[in-house]
Amino acid sequence: MSTSVRPDAGSAPRIGRARPIVLWAALIVLAVVAAMALFPSLLATHDPLRTDVRAALEAPSAAHLFGTDQSGRDVYSRVVHGAGRSVGIGLLATGLALVVGLILGALSGIAPRAVDATVMRITDVLLAFPEFLVALVVVAVLGPGPTNVAIAVTIAAVPVYVRLARVQTRSLALAEHVEAARILGVSRARAFIRHVVPGVLGSLSVLATIGIGSSILAAAGLSFLGLGPIEPSPEWGLMLSGGRNVLGTAWWIAVFPGLAITLTVVSATIVGRTLRARAEGRAS
Amino acid sequence: MTALHVQNLSVEIGGTSLVDGVSFDVARGECLAIVGESGAGKSLTAAALLGLAPPAAHVTADEMSVDGADTRRLTDGGWRELRGSRIGLVSQDALSSLDPLRRIGAEIAEPLAIHTRLSRPARRARAVELLESVSMPDAERRSGQYPHELSGGLRQRALIASALAGEPAVLIADEPTTALDATVQVRVLALLRSIVDAGTAVVFISHDFAAVRRVADRVLVMRDGRVIEHGPVSDVLGAPQEEYTRELIAASEHRPREERPGLGTAVLTGVGVSKAFAGAPAVVEASFAVRQGRTLGVVGESGSGKTTLARMIVGVERPDTGDVRWTGEHRVQLVHQNPRGAFDARWTIERSLREALEAGGVPRAARAALVADLMAEVDLAPELAKRRPAQLSGGQRQRAAIARALAADPDVLVLDEPVSALDPSVREKVLQLLRRLQRERGLTMVFVSHDLGVVAAVCDDVLVMQDGVIVEQGAVTEVFADPQHPFTQELLAASA
């Protein structure tokens, strides 16, 4: 009789890869957030800006799913309308950081030593402070407003991208396949654009998928401090701040935008990590 | 006395049978070789013997015992008890098998701490003894060094010493000499044989028949997970019964190329060429000639400067002093050692070939037809052009790399170890392709290799390098028949 030498071990858990059900939940959250950001009027039940003093501070009910705030505005509709702004700032900042990081990093990867050293020392200084603190300082200098928040979050996030882009550029520029192209007679600039830059972009995009979450959080944090969009614009961080003082009596004003931020950031991070694990699995 | 007994061992992964009904015995003081090409299931067999098959693998056997202990139902703890004390492993790559942050002595003493009750000083003394037993020169001092301070051959000795520390009855050696230079290989194989003669049962896994001949008593030929031939080395290698065994043996033996006299004026002359990297000389005062329509073999061990010489010929490196002189206009192309790295992993083969044609000035409209021609010229099916490098086998990738080099329509082709990563039968086909291309295109070739057999089969002239210096050069037939320099003689003896 043939005996099994050892029982079949179940598939071992892999670091960075979420279980399917968690991943699906995260994807659904992101889909809902995307729908809110793209088509807010379809999902909202009320006008997010319309005040109604008689209906102020109402608890969640069928008429007002998430209740109403101090001015009687529908919290649910404000969360829906806030998605575009809150997530938009985070996405814009991540996208800008990616582009700026790619350009600066790739260029300093091939630049003369003096240029490279200068860029690197600047990133060193920026990296020495927590991202949020850097963003805060930048907004303090530029002044409040959604655009400035996006710029601030970009500047805070960009050093990591520059670093990664530079390292990737350096190793790819020496890669055999780039040398092979050069020997075939492909010009230096063309080999750089064709073989080096797309490779660098690939690794930066993976980093960006994880960075989106923290950028959204940083943007919401700045808004919470009153440095981003101003009242009465619906924005999650701002709404959180508005509900802070009445948390004891009207918890729904702060809790729902807070939940929206938390779920979005956690979901974006889970999906980002899964994408990274996939990308690394492909690379090895 | 039987040290290792296996009856009807099978391994399945995801419903695919990768090892199918393998049975054998190995006695103490005996060496059994398992040979086969990649994918034959030999390494998976070894892993199953050690209880190290991947988690997804389903391993079954009617009987399986190591040194009298039944291993079929061992728990993880039971395997840990067994490994090191009764069965040991020496793997191919000593650099990755040894902990880079630990001294050699500590690495060897670790199994002693697990399997014996020796005190710490006694373990240290025993580690040095073990290093001496594997003929480690200056064992006392070496035991205090880190793996990166040792050469490849010495690292392999250290790894063998650590495998022997628990005095196992069975030693599994998985391609233990594949990564080593020929002359070092011979010494490590002799060491393995002495371990066998001292009473250990050794399972020697290899694809190299010359190595098998040196150490093994019996041999087992595997193909697609099955044992297709089994018997004493002299019988199987001397009078193989199976067609596949015959092919394998034929593919690993190369008939020297016949002399082709009268050919060739020098297209390239190197005069006193030297090159150093960060002060360390790589090539020293090299003078040589590459002749029209002929193949020049560049032979040497790792670090001998042969790749640097090839790269100077292509023009990727410039000599520090001396001169590489071309006679007339020539187009040179390089085929890299590692075709996987030489292609952009994100691009299909077709796109890479098109890029090469574009760089060669071929108009866009003509490129598609030329890609098809190139694929046909290197015997690759046209549909493979749509694949990415990772989706091709090693042999196909190397053919694609040759096709790309041909896209530039070169008349001189420099090949850096083009077949060293390939299985014998695949290697033989790629060598045939190179011979055909040379005939059809009248190519002049420079062929860098550490494998003398391969060089003899494809080269007209040969140049032997040691520590950056060309120690001998001339026609292959003459150099091989009557080597003058002691290093050439040692190399030839090692590969015989």
Polypeptide structure, described:
- The complex is a heterodimer of chains A (284) and B (496).
- Chain A has 284 residues and is an all-alpha fold.
- Chain A has a domain at 89-283: MetI-like (MetI-like fold), CATH 1.10.3720.
- Chain A is 71% helix and 1% strand.
- Chain A is built from ten helices and one strand, in the order βαααααααααα.
- In chain A, helix 6 packs antiparallel against helix 8 (188-224) and helix 7 (176-184) crosses helix 8.
- Chain B is α/β, with parallel strands linked by helices.
- Chain B has three domains: 2-252, Rossmann fold; 256-330 and 411-496, Rossmann fold (3-Layer(aba) Sandwich); 346-408.
- Helices cover 39% and strands 27% of the residues of chain B.
- In chain B, the strands form four sheets. In chain B, strands 7-8-9-3-10-11 form a six-stranded mixed sheet, sandwiched between helices. A six-stranded mixed sheet of chain B has the order 16-17-18-14-19-20, with helices on both faces. In chain B, strands 1, 2, 4, 5 and 6 form a five-stranded antiparallel sheet that branches.
- In chain B, helix 15 crosses helix 16.
- The model of chain B has no long low-confidence stretch (mean pLDDT 89).
